[in-house]
Amino acid sequence: MSEIQEQIIEEFSLLEDWMDKYNYLIELGKELPAIDEKFKTDEYLIRGCQSKVWLNVEEKDGILHFTADSDAIITKGIVSLLIKAITGRTPDEIVETELYFIDKIGLKENLSPTRANGLVAMVKQMKLYAIAYREKLKG
Amino acid sequence: MTFDIKKIRADFPILSREVNKKPLIYLDNGATTQKPQVVIDKIVDIYTNYNSNIHRGVHYLSSYTSEAYENSRKTVQSFINAKYSHEVIFTSGTTGSINTLADSLCQDYIKPDDEVIISELEHHANIVSWQVQFGGKGVKLKVLPINDAGELLIEKLPELISEKTKLISITQVSNTLGTVNPVKEIIKIAHQYNIPVLIDGAQAVQHTKVDVQDLDCDFYVFSGHKIYAPTGIGVLYGKEKWLDKLPPCQGGGDMILSGSVSFEKTLYQRLPFKFEAGTTNYVGAIAMATALEYVQGIGIENIENYEKQLLEYANKKLSSISELIIYGNAKNKACVISFLIDTVHHYDTGMILDKLGIAVRTGTHCTEPLMKRLRIDGTVRASMAFYNTFEEIDVLCSGIERVKTMFF
Lengths: 139, 408
Known about the structure:
The complex is a heterodimer.
Chain A: H1 2-13, H2 18-31, E1 45-46, E2 53-60, E3 63-70, H3 73-86, H4 91-96, H5 101-104, H6 119-138
Antiparallel strand pairs in A: 1-2, 2-3
Helix pairs in contact in A: 2-3, 3-6
Chain B: H1 5-10, E1 18-19, E2 22-23, E3 25-26, H2 37-50, H3 60-80, E4 88-91, H4 94-105, E5 115-119, H5 125-131, E6 140-144, H6 157-160, E7 165-171, H7 183-192, E8 197-200, H8 212-215, E9 219-223, E10 234-238, H9 240-245, H10 282-298, H11 300-319, E11 324-327, E12 336-341, H12 346-355, E13 358-359, E14 361-363, H13 368-374, E15 379-383, H14 390-407
Parallel strand pairs in B: 3-13, 5-6, 5-7, 7-8, 8-9
Antiparallel strand pairs in B: 1-2, 4-10, 9-10, 11-12, 12-15, 14-15
Helix pairs in contact in B: 2-10, 3-10, 4-5, 11-14, 12-14
């Protein structure tokens, strides 16, 4: 899993200033496959005060697949990175993952709990899903 | 007097700092204002040389702070032209003031099936404070609507009034749209029905002269931190006739009548102490007086006049940006502009402006019902103060153009 994080870090190291970084995030945000409209309901909504994030998880053969969306493009760009770093893994792997790349690519401020953009809650929710599936799959 | 903007800006040390390697452009004054050096110095001076709890001790320091605290009350009294200084209660801020008043009014004067009239423009503080009453059952709220420009439909007020209406609680200036409401007219109508009026002045006192006797409002509340004073201090003004008969809702400290406390019953202090339980934020109150004196030194009329020109300029400049939508086009507005750039999310706009050193507020501005009325999730809000410049408005506009190049 750290391979993907290293890859993201490398991609970002090529971007020189904040402008390039944010332009890249905006591109990623635009590219993120939109979540199925049926998941854009309150049930899947992670409430940030400022921007909203919707998150869905599906399990197939012991692997968790996440899809997500946000109403703000920059948030969506970061959502896309988080998804990339965590999706398609086993619950165990996800629970143990430390998402260090955000800090390394200089976007730590976006994952501050005071930002109220739903991202911190999203990471927490992904971990909670993983824990729940770990128990479920054991059973 | 001439308005020396350079000199004024030099009074506020934070305004010369950089953010994200750009000169700070602070346009979030509706959330909180910056502090002039005299206010910062006053706080340091009190803690360095005079700190002692008020009204308690016979010693020198306590006498000093107690006197300074009571003098601050007089400064507030004169600032809002209250008839008596004991009509000025120190609280933690506007939200604290509204909650205190709501708690007190709902002990006896307002009954569970009574009604309070508010408006569609209200901040959550003037909505939720009423909903938490009566064990969460709340007071019934009747809501005065706005037109599409964001102005109150004042002609609808009489039809909202019923025998159950116990209070009209209205903001003087909308924190989100900047609409200046005709509060004097509202008070006049309310008094024809013998209904008292609470005015939320959180976004008004820093922009315009407030005279509570001229307004004839029964209650007036505002926060210190929005008028260049520290956080955690605010004012609840009430006419003596009201405050005298209202019960206190917090017990302890200085609010009791000395010698009257027993396990069976306690008598309360006279005004204003009846409403000031516990150790108040006396340092905040003393520094607030310094802030109000600072504002008086510049002249609230001069501030109002300058801010009017600034708003006109900002409105003209922002209106000329294609795809920019301004929310709130009231004829009478305070120095606030809420906007969105086409479909760009307010959070995205705020993030990019921040990178350019421009501090604006994004989101619902604690006015979710108003957002629903406008059918939007939030806005970007540029709220100005008298230390902002025309050049800063220009930088904001180029920042917005930059946002457009990134998202379009």
